[in-house]
Specification:
This protein is α/β, with parallel strands linked by helices and about 400 residues long. It folds into two domains: about 5-175, Rossmann fold (3-Layer(aba) Sandwich); about 185-394, 3-Layer(aba) Sandwich (Rossmann fold). It contains 13 helices and 23 strands. It has helices at about 20-30, 45-55, 70-75, 90-95, 100-110, 120-125, 130-140, 165-175, 210-220, 250-260, 305-310, 330-340, 380-394, and strands spanning about 5-10, 30-35, 65, 65-70, 80-85, 115-120, 145, 150, 155-160, 185-190, 195, 205, 225-230, 245, 265-270, 275-280, 300, 315-325, 345-350, 360, 365, 370-375, 380. Strands 14-13-10-15-18-19-21-22 form an eight-stranded mixed β-sheet, with helices on both faces. Helix 1 (about 20-30) packs parallel to helix 2, helix 1 (about 20-30) runs parallel beside helix 8 and helix 9 (about 210-220) crosses helix 13. The radius of gyration is 25 Å and the shape is elongated. The structure holds ligand PMT. Ligand PMT binds near residues 322 and 335.
């Protein structure tokens, strides 16, 4: 953070008092801090406090008695802009390009990375309008510093507290220290389940949430890779400027998207739980309950991994997964060879906290050389970082 020029935009929330310790911490880390305030923020904390801490004049208007505060110049000066607290109103203005105060004006002119730390009441935070604004800002490449959970100014308990100043500084430090070791690399990833329709109402599916594959996509995208994420029916909506999302439902659609995209990619990662069989006939009307037993004839779906393994060129890497319930190592080894993976990531349903839907996973990586590396139970983001580091080794 030493020598970094940071714009700290403060909007009108009770959490504005935390901006004083945030600016002090930033300065302690060696940053130069220029504070901007919305007029409402000055009701919660005085510009005098912040100018004393930051040792610079604080701007709360686009023009003041001293003249015009050049928002374009400020937008170009900064290495990062952080808006903390970011109220629901400020988020809505930023998401929609409104320009009616010094923060929104500088935001629109800024070429530097922008971070925002929302602060509001739990129901305001959960409102679809706020969530849409947050997603909109993320889709512009702005960085959300997640809200905390706890007691709020209203007395309600829930999500909506602004992150603590120490956490905000940690986010900035991690950003400036970030590796961009995958810049220039193109990656296709499959993730989530597939749904194979039986009739217009029912399908054969599985319990995959998409969390593992999405975590890998986000880690790679953060490290500079351009990612095409072929995602089966999952509730997740990853938003990242380096991730192109391709939504699919069935194994056939996932196969078409993955095979169509693989040729131009450096790396393929197959984290999806793909149905191995699908109904041969899909009824066009809801199947009625008649006899006591019902048999459904199934046929094999295309094996995406095996198809990509066959066309893999020199210089391309293909990474697979194996979800097992027994005889784990032998089953995974068989898949590693049959599907021509460069390595396979094994997770077993026998490990608590591993596999489907959990926020954590426990993996073992098996290489073609015979090397086997076992990892501890970790968050799926930390597991994704281990997998990405393993790819970097290759
Ligand atoms: O999505 P989450 O809830 O976070 O859960 C993550 C996960 C458990 C789904 C993930 O970590 C995982 O293990 N994915 C692979 C699950 C699986 O069903 O593996 P498999 O043993 O059936 O298949 C082996 C490999 O071939 C996998 O890379 C799979 O994507 C691929 N495959 C399988 C069948 C098929 N028709 N096409 C494929 O590409």
């Amino acid at each position: 953070m030493k020598g970094k020029k940071i714009i700290l935009g403060i909007s009108g929330s009770i959490a504005a008092y935390k901006a004083a310790s945030l600016s002090r911490l930033l300065i302690k880390c060696g940053a130069e801090v220029q504070v901007l305030m919305t007029p409402a923020a000055t009701d919660f904390i005085t510009p005098l406090t912040l100018s004393t801490l930051s040792k610079r004049p604080v701007f709360s208007k686009v023009s003041s008695e001293e003249g015009w505060n050049n928002h374009v110049e400020l937008g170009l000066w900064a290495d990062a802009m952080i808006i903390a607290p970011a109220t629901a109103t400020t988020l809505a203005k930023l998401a929609n390009g409104l320009c009616d105060n010094v923060i929104t004006a500088v935001y629109l002119s800024a070429r530097c990375p922008v971070f925002f730390a929302p602060a509001m009441d739990v129901d305001m935070w959960k409102h679809p309008a706020t969530q849409r604004n947050v997603q909109q800002l993320q889709s512009y490449g702005n960085h959300l510093i997640p809200v905390g959970h706890g007691e709020l100014a209203s007395g309600l308990v829930g999500e909506g507290r602004m992150a603590e100043p120490e956490d905000i500084v940690a986010h900035l430090q991690a950003f400036f220290a970030k590796k961009t070791d995958f810049t220039g690399k193109k990656v296709v990833i499959t993730a989530g389940p597939t749904y194979e329709p039986l009739d217009p109402v029912r399908f054969i599916g599985n319990r995959s949430s998409g969390k593992m594959g999405v975590a890998i996509a986000e880690v790679l995208a953060d490290r500079g890779a351009k990612v095409r994420l072929v995602l089966g029916p999952s509730k997740l909506m990853p938003v990242h400027p380096n991730i192109e999302l391709i939504r699919v439902q069935t194994a056939q659609q996932m196969y078409e998207a993955a095979t169509h995209n693989f040729e131009q990619q450096h790396i393929g990662i197959l984290a999806a739980a793909v149905a191995d069989y699908r109904p041969i006939d899909v009824a066009d009307k809801k199947i009625k309950k008649k006899s006591d037993k019902l048999s459904i004839a199934l046929e094999k779906t295309p094996d995406i991994a095996a198809s990509l393994g066959k066309v893999k060129q020199k210089g391309q890497l293909l990474i697979g997964f194996a979800l097992e319930t027994n005889n784990e190592l032998d089953n995974a080894k068989g898949k590693l060879e049959r599907k021509n993976f460069d390595f396979i990531v094994l997770n077993s349903l026998r490990d608590k906290g591993a596999g489907f839907n959990h926020d954590t996973n426990k993996i073992t990586i098996l290489h073609r050389s015979g090397e086997v590396k076992a990892f501890d139970l970790k968050s799926k983001t930390a597991v994704a970082a281990d997998i990405v580091n393993e790819i970097r080794e290759l």
